[in-house]
Each structure stands twice: as C-alpha cells, then as structure tokens.
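I am still getting used to backbone structure tokens and would like to learn alongside you. Label the sequence line and the structure token line clearly, so we can match residues to local backbone shapes. Go ahead whenever you are ready, and we will take it from there:
>
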Amino acid sequence: MLRAQRFALAASLIGILCSVLLSQLSPNLPFLVGGLIYLLLGLLLTSLMRETGFVRPLRDMAGTWTAGVKVVRRSPLLLGLVAVTLLSGAASEGYDRLWPTLLLSGGGTGLPDTGWPPAIWFGLIEASITLLGLAGVRLAERRVDMRSRRAVSTALLLAMALRVAAVIGLALAPSFGWAFAALLLAGTASAVFSPLYSAWLNSQLESRTRATVLSMVSQADALGQTAGGPFVGWIGSRFSIRAALLAAGVLLLPVLGLFARMRSIQPRDGAVPEENMEYTSNRLASADRKPAADSTISNPDSD
C-alpha cells in the first residue's frame, strides 16, 4: 500500500513538473497533452479492460435518487450525511475555482514579484500541497484506528475544523505568505479528510443498501456543486473574491457542527465491520492519486 502511494505521488509530481514546462512553450499545451493522454488511456483501457458482465440497470438517475431517499429518510445519520455532502460540495466548488484568482488579483496576497511566470508558482504550490497531503495520509494511517468509528469520527472532525480555519484564513489573508500557508493547510486537510470520510461513510451503511446510498451521495455532491458554485461565484462578482472565499468557509461551518453531532452519537467501542476493512484500506491507499488541491471532499467515489 505504501509503495503504491509512493508511485502515485511520484506520478503526480512528474505531471506537475511536465505541466509547468509545457506551459512555458504555450499556455494551452498542458491541456492539449493532458486531453491526448486521457484519449489514449481510454482507448488502451477499452481493449485491455473489457466489461463482459455488465447488466444494464433498471433505474435511471431519478430512480436511483428516489430509492436513495427512501433509505436515507429512515436514518437521521444518513440525512446528516446528505446535508454534509450538499454543503461541502457547494463550498468546495467555489473554493477550488477562486483561490487561484485571489493569487492572480494582485494586492497583498498576489504572487511575489520574482519575475517567474504564474505557472511556475502554481506548480510549486501544487507540489507542496501534494507532498504535505501524502504526509498527512501517512500520519492518518498510523495514528487513526480505522476499526473504531469514534476514532474515525474524531479524525474527520479535526480535519474539517482545520479546513474551515484554512478557507476562512485564506479569505482574510493579509499577505502571500499567509495565503500560501492557508492553501497548504486546506490541501492537507482535504487529502486526509477524503479517504477517511469515504471509509467512514461505508462503515455506516448496510451491504444491501450501500450502492444505492453511495450513488445518492454522489448525486447530492454534484447538486451541491451545481447550485452552490454559481452562488459563491456571484458573491465574488458582486462583492469581492475574498467575500466569496469567506462565504465558502461559512458554508462549511454547519458541516463542522454536523460532524461534531455525529461524533457524539458514535459509541466509544463502536467497531467498523470486518467486511468493510478492505474497502477502508483501498481508500487510504488511493488517497494521493489525485492532486490534493482539488478539494472536492464530499464525493466518496470521486477519487
């Protein structure tokens, strides 16, 4: 598992380096090369990973949502999880799109005047976040008892608290150094939160309803991003980028309260069922396969 993490981190850092170098030739070149790689990978997987046992589902998206509602409405805990997903999806969409704009807007939090192009600065920021994200996940693997629901709930609460503080700190940052530190903290907290949340969510679900609820949670995340992202963006257009980032942080405050409530109702000796431990390990192992700066933290299947 740790070896797989090292390969994933190495690939991520190599991608960042290549993107920075390609951007010096042409700003759109990293996108073209990335799209070509995705196309070639898709063609390769089409021939190497054929799906022979696929059965077309009887339900469409609306049917999946309806089935999920029937399951979720019977459990206050699952209702809270859907609320968490909606709010965090709305907050993360605004944050992900606006923090680069804050650094490019000049003023106290603008990129330092070193003569370096912005692509180099963003590459350094992304690489730093990726490295710290890996360190955070490794620490969580060693220190968090994944067999204890209460321990995982406590880790989630701490990671969410750090993320809220980082997003609000970025909105109020008086200098680039402050903003850079806030970005590192937010990215690290997101990298730790995402696999822990996915594993914790899985431990709360029964096997017979797990797929339905996870699908509904994914749709709730998409709904939160679709509805909340434009709202946060409107605040940025109407007032300022800082106000929009502050709104994203405020949207996460109810999520923090919900996790505190969920932690309080977890039994101290509540153990994660054995059948879910392999899933938990896989989520932690794949935690670094996407950049930590991409802080969509609420979708359990987005990695």
Observations:
- Confidence is low (pLDDT under 50) at residues 1-5, 272-285, 287-303.
- The radius of gyration is 20 Å.
- The longest helix spans residues 207-238.
